[in-house]
Amino acid sequence: MHWRYSILSLVVVACSLSACTRYGFGDRRTATTGQDARPETAPTDGARDIADIATPGDLTNDGPPAVIAISTLAQDWATPNTIRWSWQVDGETDKLAGYTLVVGLSAQDVRASQGSAKRWDVQQNPELGVFQLAGVQGNQVITGTITDLLAPDTVYFAQLHVTDTAGGTSSTTVVQGRTARAANNAVVLFSDDDTQGYSIPSTLALSSRRPYQGKFCYEYVSICPNTKPDCWENLRRQDIKVALPALDAASFAQAYFEVAVGCNGKHSYWSSVWLTFGSLQNDFFSYEGFTIRCNDGYRLYQFPLRVLKSKSGSLNASDAADGVSEFNVGGLWTAGATVRLDELRIRW
Length: 348
Prior knowledge:
- The protein is built from 3 helices and 24 strands.
- The protein is mainly beta.
- Strands 12, 14, 15, 17, 20 and 24 form a 6-stranded antiparallel beta sheet that branches.
- A hairpin with a 4-residue loop joins strand 2 (68-78) and strand 3.
- The longest helix is centred in the first third of the chain and has 6 residues, at 107-112.
């Protein structure tokens, strides 16, 4: 089987030049416990404001001829601690062995995979070990991944490698991206104190077991019908009525939604988050098609507000000014697995 797939970019990433500190549709709203109510499409948002700095030797391959080719690695969007990268791929889908994305503070480190360079592969990002996201209504070829634990307002260099089952390797040129500046403001959606409103499903409940921070988190144990090994569930808190200040264009461009998710069982390869706002409760704004890693620990996810989309279009500052009425994390959870949500905020 031969295929070709690419992701397009629609939104400009806004980054400041200040110094940084180093640290690290189908309707889904009616889903009930154990039912498959999976979103149908995935977003293709982001920016490709990238400097291509390839040098001779970037694409060399001393092994067998590659049967899978990758190209056009680029940054789609960034938050202070994450960058989403995307690429184009062409080749035989059943020959994929895996991807490795190398990210570092210099092109030299990335090419040599040493010094400041860090490697993201299937151990860090499970989606890098498959060619299509599992559990989707229709198949979505892997053409992007999110790197986390990055420093704010920092230039990063990246190179992607793909290996096929015969040992052939294809590599992109080294490209440059940049994280957004650190946030100075935040509105808490949840942190320890139970929110207003209610949960859907009702078994998503406040728990003192293993919070990400503080004393409490929201916890859910997956229940699947008919002995199914896994099932889709949207984990929602509705009518939370959290006010947001009016954000000007610059502040909205920097604003992002943050949530810590912890889970065990199988990874949720195709996942989604959404927010609803004030009078727009029937129009939810989502980011879809990313993987939630379930390794019995937490991971902090960040999504720019500007990349959240609804059936009527992208979220804008005037929509957000109505205040947050609901948050949701949706995934394909293993039967009996525990999922925890904690420390949800809007930052800018």
